[in-house]
Amino acid sequence: MIKLVRHDPSGMDIYQLSNDKLQVVVSNYGGTILNLYAPDRHGEFADVVLGYDKLTSYQQEDGYLGALVGRVANRIRQGTFTLNGKTYHLAVNNGPNHLHGGLKGFSYQFFEATIVDETTLRLHYVSEDGEEGYPGRLDLVADYILKDHQLILHYRATTTEDTLVNITNHSYFNLSGHQESIHSHWLMVKADQFACVDGDGLPTGKIRDVTGSVFDLREARLLGQVLNQSDEQLEIAHGLDHPFILSAKENQVVLYHPESGRQLTVSTSLPTAQIYSANYLNDRQGKNGAIYANQDAVCIETQYLPDAIHLQEHPDTILRKGDVYDAVTSYTFEVITK
Ligand code: BGC
């Protein structure tokens, strides 16, 4: 069932998608997932994503808690790129680089929301030609679908001119319902390789084989152990903040919290997942009086390779006029008693 639960004078509306297995609360502001309630082994529901109490915090804070990120997720080096022989200058908002769509990326925009049917909430946004420096008028439709114990995010976009697109969702998962840090969570990522990053968080172009390293998450590992190991790449990023190059076609990432029994499986049509151990939460004020410390959550940001426009011979973040960007990521919540 989907219903509008709050209509705020600011234009921020809140929708609830629910069934007996899962409850998802979404705002038309930034396509943000405000709450996601999933049951534990005793059938007790807890909110497994970080967020704020006040809607205005989503407008004022960084961190992209729960937000839909675009036009291009992650960083574009020096905020500039050349496409079809023309150089574009984007908004620069992270040192000398462009991050998560710029100063007022999709996370900070109002979407038009429609309840399509019992399971689908449709969010629509038109990004004007030149917005944040990007070419082309981009038309984005994001469907938030609740099916059984699964939330499916389906994005489609078209453009009036060749442009760049790389959409992700930036939810911060903590399956304990923020009772414990993510050090008590187990993470599995089906990736044989990951992209090395520099001090600014940008891929250097070097792709490393995970074998024998702390980045080998092909078998589930306890995050507390992973994050406490020494590896130059972990130190540079202050934890995990790396693009993992997925080597499976489905169910590529699994996060598990033994105490509650909650398990999240992420399955995506996209080739990469930025695994981010929330290294910059910096004790910010969160929901219900909580203070969010670094590594209190993990983001599983499915996307194309960050900065692909500078790194790939045929960058897969280019959306040509006449083509359709179409990507699906699902989040399945189960209770596993091991
Ligand atoms: C990036 C981080 C960044 C965070 C919040 C993540 O997607 O990889 O480097 O700090 O978003 O902006």
Describe, in plain words, how this protein is organized in 3D.
- The chain has four helices and 30 strands.
- The chain has helices at about 55-60, 225, 230-235, 310; strands at about 1-5, 15-20, 25, 35-40, 45, 70, 75, 80-85, 85-90, 100, 110-115, 120-125, 140-145, 150-160, 165, 170, 170-175, 185-190, 190-195, 205-210, 220, 240-245, 255, 260-270, 270-275, 285, 290, 300-305, 320, 325-335.
- It binds beta-D-glucopyranose.
- Beta-D-glucopyranose binds near residues 100, 201 and 274.
- Beta-D-glucopyranose binds near residues 64, 100, 276, 280 and 301.
The N- and C-terminal alpha carbons lie at a distance of 32 Å
Indicate the CATH topology: Beta-galactosidase, Chain A, domain 5
Mind telling me the CATH class? Mainly Beta
What is the 3D form?
Answer: globular
Report the count of strand segments.
30
Sequence-ordered SSE layout with sheet pairings:
Elements: E1 2-7, E2 13-18, E3 23-27, E4 33-39, E5 45-47, H1 55-60, E6 68-69, E7 75-76, E8 80-83, E9 86-89, E10 98-99, E11 112-115, E12 120-127, E13 138-147, E14 150-159, E15 163-164, E16 168-169, E17 172-173, E18 186-189, E19 191-197, E20 203-209, E21 221-222, H2 223-227, H3 232-237, E22 241-246, E23 253-257, E24 262-268, E25 272-276, E26 284-285, E27 291-292, E28 298-303, H4 308-311, E29 318-319, E30 325-335
The chain binds beta-D-glucopyranose (BGC).
Beta-D-glucopyranose binds near residues 64, 241 and 274.
